[in-house]
Amino acid sequence: MTGYVMGTLDKKFVEGNIKTFDDFHGAILDIFNDWETVQDQSVKKEEFIRNMKEKINPGKLDDSTLIIGIATPPAAMAAKRAGENVPQLGFIKAIPDVVFVPSATILTLFLAKLTKRMLQGSTTAS
After folding, report:
1. How far apart are CA 31 and CA 15, in angstroms?
2. CA gap 84, 99 in Å, rounded
3. What DSSP character marks residue 77?
4. Measured at the alpha carbon of residue 48, what is the angle toward residues 45 and 50, in degrees to the nearest 5?
5. CB atoms within 10 A of CB 76
6. What is the pLDDT of residues 102-113, one digit of tens each?
7. How far apart are the C-alpha atoms of 85 and 73, rounded to whole Å?
């Protein structure tokens, strides 16, 4: 923040053409306006971070999530390679690896979490 203000000072006074008091007064007012803008942005940033910390509840990482996250990408690559040789699944060749593997990983993690919640819900309801 101070670098921004010092840059404004340099721009207004060193590079600027200030010869009268009115020029000086205008430059000072511009600096204060710039300072208020920077202050408002930092306040907004702090408010955003505070709201994010209050509103977002991060999920807990458990062993199954870690194992699935590590094992799924190689399994997805193997499944893609095997599916490319099956004539009915020839369209898999058109999907790039950089799209297929992360998509399969996210889908698998989502389904594992959903299944875990469904099983925990059914055991507590019984």
Report:
1. 14
2. 15
3. H
4. 110
5. 19
6. 999 999 999 998
7. 19
